[in-house]
Design brief:
Prot_kinase_dom; nucleotide-binding; six-stranded mixed beta sheet; 14 strands; Phosphorylase Kinase, domain 1; ATP binding; alpha+beta; Transferase(Phosphotransferase), domain 1; single chain; two-stranded antiparallel sheet; 37% helix; 400 residues
């Protein structure tokens, strides 16, 4: 008897939640100030996603974020997708998340395909990126050799994606958890930024001018600390003042991983050894500076920290410039760090020594509205549901 009552209560609670979400969305759609722009997004019925992921089986599980697990799914046309649980978020947060994701259109950012909100499940559907994350590829787990030029290209791709989020997205976005496992590689080894667990949104009112000399604008937003130890901006950790330069610090750590091939803990240990210190003491920025030998015009005395798999491929001048750029990213004060667009330009200059074609942030924008896709983008899976998501909810619960 009690179990029957509990089931009815659960069904009613789910119904109320879905209806409330539909009405909230419908209300937003009628308000010009908060118009939800679902550019190219699709609604995926829950029963379809169950089929795609083999009933969300353990074998299909490919990762786990702070808001739930991620599953690989296969659509009937053979296109692979990544289905992320977002059930720990509130209804309002979920609405914001799918609206924001639908506005992100860039080749170097994982593509958002659609969403599902049924049976108490909040699910986000992305393209599946085939060649795994950067950390696994550096370690050789995926069986791919990342030579020096390819590592520079991956850094450039990632910088383009982040520069887009910081400067061109609407609204502007701070990722908050940049790390090597949140950079994925597609079948052509193009890098995509992934790992959006409710990224921090930035309104124009939150932007402040922090330097009257260089006219640069630095966005500071009060935020609970979120991120991964080792990649976490120390200034953000100490002050809880988040800025786009927090992503820059994390990106600097990724650059060191590309140079050394080591994990962050191993990088710290290597520089501790070089300057004869324990783990306590200065930040990594100071440790690297202390280890540099300016008399070594080839490797700054740091040849031993370069990944042995690429040490014979590294051009000395490229290495020095890339290392110097990484150190700029790791400066303790956020206002002293470069912007992602500056980082992008500097890496592009380094790559041009190898004859690479120069590009800009906007070269990799993707126009969802006109349904034009870059060659590397997999075809969009289509939902068998012919109606819109709002129509689906109305039919399901008998709404008008």
């Amino acid at each position: 008897m009690r179990s029957g009552v509990a089931r009815r209560e659960l069904k009613q609670r789910r119904k109320d939640e879905e209806i409330a979400f539909a009405r909230l969305w419908n209300s937003a759609a009628k308000d010009d100030r908060t118009d939800p722009q679902l550019n190219g997004a699709r609604y995926f019925p829950f029963k379809e996603l169950k089929k795609y992921t083999n009933n969300f089986s353990k074998d299909n599980e490919i990762g786990e974020g702070s808001f739930g697990k991620v599953y690989k799914g296969c659509c009937p046309d053979g296109v692979a997708v990544a289905v992320k649980e977002s059930s720990k978020t509130s209804t309002k947060e979920f609405q914001i998340e799918i609206e924001v994701l639908s506005r992100i259109h860039h080749k170097n950012i994982q593509k958002f395909l659609g969403f599902c909100f049924e049976q108490g499940k909040k699910l986000i559907v992305y393209e599946y990126i085939t060649k795994g994350n950067l950390r696994d590829n550096i370690d050789g787990i995926c069986g791919i050799h990342l030579d020096w030029k390819k590592r520079l290209q991956i850094a450039l791709d990632s910088a383009r994606g982040l520069a887009y989020l910081h400067e061109l997205a609407n609204p502007l976005i701070i990722h908050r958890d940049i790390k090597s496992i949140n950079i994925a590689l597609d079948e052509n080894l193009n890098a995509r930024v992934i790992g959006f667990d409710i990224p921090k949104l930035v309104s124009e009112k939150q932007k402040e001018n922090v330097s009257s000399q260089d006219k640069r604008t630095l966005t500071r937003v009060k935020s609970a600390v979120k991120g991964t130890i080792g990649y976490l901006d120390p200034e953000y950790f100490q002050t809880q003042q988040l800025s786009e330069k927090s992503d820059v610090y994390s990106f600097g750590m990724v650059m060191l991983e590309l140079i050394t091939g080591r994990s962050l803990s191993d990088i710290q240990a290597e520089f501790n050894k070089a300057i004869n210190q324990n783990d306590e003491g200065p930040f990594l920025f100071e440790k690297v500076h202390a280890a540099i030998d300016q008399n070594d015009l080839e490797y700054y005395g740091l040849r031993n920290i370069i990944d042995p798999k690429i040490v014979t491929e590294v051009r000395n001048d490229d290495f020095r410039k890339f290392l110097q750029l990484a150190l700029k990213c790791l400066k303790h004060s956020a206002s002293d760090r470069p912007s992602m667009s500056e980082i992008m330009r500097d890496i592009d200059v380094i790559l041009q020594h190898d004859g690479s074609e120069r590009t800009t942030i906007t070269d990799y924008l993707d126009d969802f509205g006109n349904a034009t896709y870059l060659p590397q983008h997999p075809s969009r899976p289509r939902s068998s549901n012919k109606g819109s998501w709002l129509q689906h909810i109305r039919l399901k619960w008998g709404l008008r």
